């Protein structure tokens, strides 16, 4: 039975990938439209691939160097191994592959969504959402397959082959080596997210400032030299970047729960590894229930509510997962368990999982409220656009700051409740429950950029107004789903980081983080500062790249005669090149901060100061991520509100009006907030925690594997059948 359950995990990952292949083939078979549409789509696909190739070239150097250092470090302590380098490289490769799968299908689905919008809203939604679901299933399938397969190998090699117990140093070594997989995934995710974010916003800001504001032409007008780069950016930032982002988040959440599960002495039918296996099983089943939920995403006619359809798919997958988790937990876990002095039952674990699902749902609902068109926060920004650019900015900043209150209260309640249910394992399994439906969450998120691209192709191809009307409906909902996806990701980051933090404390041999100590308090303040300097570097990079883009667009308007009369074609490739070079150049510094800071602090000042640093980064980063993502999303939809007309003080205003120009300024400010620095916060938080976990054995303050909060216990179980009766004998040994 034990073996069957272990192999079930990668098998469920394979099911996800098979369904992904079927959906991808369906998208590919859809009509692509006329020659002009195909040509424009080809420009976007070529630009996206050019960026990925340039990014991968730089990241391959980083991965090789990091792999060598990890292999060397694995020889220095007994609870690691040079094999951690292989684990790291596999994680990095699969993270990049997840982003590539998403980008590839998005550049196929965009033009097919445009063509589908020529027939009906229902068909346009079906094509765009199916494209998004390919990405969601690809990310979840690769994560579960990769993590599940590596765990089987490491468990067999480091534990079973030497006859060791589940709670000894051997299993700790297996999980430490497995942590390399998460480190590789998160490292690539950070660079992909920051690099893609800089790319997309440099192009977007340049296209907006010169095209819409100065030249007075529509956002996606074929005459705008930056419009192809802008549409490429939607793919490399919001699709490839987001895919790598949630791949890393998914893996880190499962790993954190596994590391804490290793501390639990479990007398179960699976050789004592049930608490370690549970998060992987939940993730695998989450793929199946996400597939079922995807079937609910449809509208009946042109008046159908797209947001409601997406919510129906999302909530159904969450409900299915919650129901299944009851039976999984009761089947796998023993009746009573304990971690670090906290006793709990299997039902308490189930309650923690449900709490995680509830927290994730509430975070999505709250984020939707603060960023959706027609709701009070966005309407307040629209109203303040009536008095100028400055009041629009003030309104957006206010909404962003206000939007942190409810999510933080929900998050705090979730952390406290999960701990009350099942200690630190409860917090970790709550995060795993929240992330179980990642395939569905990512499908909803990736649908947005596909719809945005579809609208751009419709505009550039000068298709009938009704086509652009349908793509605009999808795009407006996509802005909201993108914001809710980022809210979901930052919430999972907070829960996951606490679990990783707890695992770090256990492995590093410390018992508490004492902020009365001056050095620890100093570490706390430095940690709180890091999200600010990280955001500064990312936003400044967008600003510099956008300036280059603005100058290039102005040059083309000035030096290439006939662009405005459709007589000459702009040099799109020049703008694509500017964004590509800028993003690759500028992503290095923010990434280096996340990777190097915990190493320097850990080795220079010890694990307790590093713990203070992680606490500061987590609190500050969660707040910064929420504020920036929600403010940017609200600004964006405030601008889009003018497309159908808005009522300000009894007067209706449309595009090209003065209030609309003010809303464009707000959207331009919010662009790097919501698509570059804001969504990078959750990766920053988790990556620094993963780095700390990997170096923990090297900076441990005591005999490795023994600390006051949790003694390592080796459990041996003998099962005998005498006269048809089954008896069990359990022997526990403290491992020093």
Describe what this molecule looks like in 3D.
With 736 residues, the protein is mostly helical. Helix content is 77%, strand content 5%. It has 19 helices and 6 strands. A hairpin with a 2-residue loop joins strand 1 and strand 2. Helix 2 (35-73) runs parallel beside helix 16. It is globular. The two termini are 31 Å apart.
Task: Explain briefly what this protein structure is.
The chain is 77% helix and 5% strand.
Which assembly state applies to the chains in this document?
A: single chain
Percent of residues in beta strands: under 5%
Reading side by side through the largest sheet, how are the strands ordered? 1-2
Are there runs of 5+ residues with pLDDT below 50, and where?
Answer: 703-715, 732-736
Strand count, sense and barrel status of the largest sheet are: 2 strands, antiparallel
Helix content: over 70%
Structural class: mainly alpha
Rg measurement, Å: 25 Å
Mean pLDDT: 86
C-alpha geometry: globular
First and last CA, distance = 31 Å
Task: Give the number of DSSP strands.
Answer: 6
Tell me the series of helices and strands, N- to C-terminal: HHHHHHHHEEHHHHHHHHHHEEHEE
Number of helices: 19
């Amino acid at each position: 039975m034990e073996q069957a359950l272990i192999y079930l995990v990668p098998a469920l990952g394979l099911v996800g990938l098979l369904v992904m292949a079927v959906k991808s083939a369906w998208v590919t078979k859809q009509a692509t439209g006329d020659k002009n549409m195909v040509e424009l789509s080809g420009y976007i696909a070529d630009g996206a691939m050019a960026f990925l190739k340039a990014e991968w070239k730089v990241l391959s150097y980083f991965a090789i160097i990091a792999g060598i250092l990890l292999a060397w470090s694995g020889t220095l302590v007994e609870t690691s191994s040079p094999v951690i380098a292989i684990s790291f490289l596999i994680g990095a490769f699969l993270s990049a592959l997840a982003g590539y799968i998403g980008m590839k299908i998005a550049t196929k689905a965009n033009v097919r969504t445009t063509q589908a919008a020529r027939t009906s809203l229902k068909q346009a939604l079906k094509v765009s959402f199916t494209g998004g679901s390919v990405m969601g299933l690809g990310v979840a399938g690769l994560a579960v397959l990769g993590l599940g397969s590596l765990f089987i190998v490491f468990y067999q090699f480091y534990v079973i082959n030497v006859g060791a117990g589940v709670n000894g140093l051997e299993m700790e070594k297996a999980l430490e080596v497995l942590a390399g997989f998460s480190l590789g995934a998160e490292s690539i995710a950070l660079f992909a997210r920051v690099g893609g974010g800089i790319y997309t916003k440099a192009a977007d800001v340049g296209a907006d400032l010169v095209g819409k504001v100065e030249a007075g032409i529509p956002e996606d007008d074929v005459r705008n030299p930056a419009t192809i780069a802008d549409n490429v950016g939607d793919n490399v930032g919001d699709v490839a970047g987001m895919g790598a982002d949630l791949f890393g988040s998914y893996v880190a959440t499962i790993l954190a729960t596994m590391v804490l599960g290793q501390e639990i002495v479990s007398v179960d039918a699976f050789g004592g590894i049930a608490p370690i296996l549970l998060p992987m099983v939940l993730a695998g089943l989450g793929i199946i229930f996400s597939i079922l939920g995807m079937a609910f995403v449809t509208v009946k006619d042109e008046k159908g509510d797209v947001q409601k359809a997406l919510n129906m798919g999302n909530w159904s997958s969450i409900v299915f997962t919650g129901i299944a988790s009851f039976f999984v937990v009761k089947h796998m876990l023993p009746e009573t368990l304990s971690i670090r002095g906290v006793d709990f039952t299997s039902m308490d674990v189930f309650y923690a999982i449900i709490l995680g699902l509830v927290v994730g749902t509430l975070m999505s609902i709250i984020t939707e409220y603060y960023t959706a068109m027609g709701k009070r926060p966005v309407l307040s920004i629209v109203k303040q656009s009536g008095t100028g650019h400055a009041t629009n900015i003030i309104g957006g900043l206010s909404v962003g700051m206000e939007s942190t209150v409810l999510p933080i209260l929900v998050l705090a309640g979730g952390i406290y409740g999960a701990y009350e249910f099942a200690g630190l394992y409860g917090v970790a399994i709550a995060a795993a429950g929240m992330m179980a439906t990642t395939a569905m969450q990512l499908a909803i998120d990736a649908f947005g950029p596909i719809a945005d691209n579809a609208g751009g192709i419709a505009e550039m191809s000068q298709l009938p107004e009704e086509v652009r009307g349908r793509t605009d409906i999808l795009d407006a909902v996509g802005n909201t789903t993108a914001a809710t996806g980022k809210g979901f990701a930052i919430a999972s980051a907070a829960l996951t980081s606490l679990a990783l933090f707890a695992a770090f404390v256990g492995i590093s041999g410390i018992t508490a983080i004492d902020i009365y100590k001056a050095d620890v308090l100093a570490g706390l303040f430095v940690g709180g500062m890091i999200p600010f300097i990280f955001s500064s570097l990312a936003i400044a990079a967008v600003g510099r790249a956008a300036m280059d883009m603005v100058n290039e667009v102005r040059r083309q308007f000035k030096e290439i005669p006939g662009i405005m009369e459709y007589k000459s074609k702009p040099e799109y490739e020049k703008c694509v090149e500017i964004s590509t070079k800028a993003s690759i150049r500028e992503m290095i510094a923010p990434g280096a901060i996340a990777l190097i800071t915990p190493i320097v602090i850990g080795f220079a000042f010890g694990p307790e100061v590093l713990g203070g640093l992680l606490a500061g980064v987590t609190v500050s980063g969660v707040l910064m991520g929420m504020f920036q993502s929600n403010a940017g999303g609200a600004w964006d939809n405030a601008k889009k509100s003018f497309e159908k007309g808005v009522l300000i003080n009894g007067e209706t205003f449309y595009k090209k009006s003065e209030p609309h120009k003010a809303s464009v300024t707000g959207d331009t400010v919010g662009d790097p907030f919501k698509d570059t620095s804001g969504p990078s916060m959750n990766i920053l938080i988790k990556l620094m925690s993963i780095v700390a976990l990997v170096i923990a054995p090297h900076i441990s303050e005591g005999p490795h594997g023994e600390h006051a909060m949790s003694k390592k216990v080796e459990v041996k179980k003998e099962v005998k059948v005498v006269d048809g009766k089954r008896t069990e004998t359990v022997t526990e040994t403290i491992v020093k």
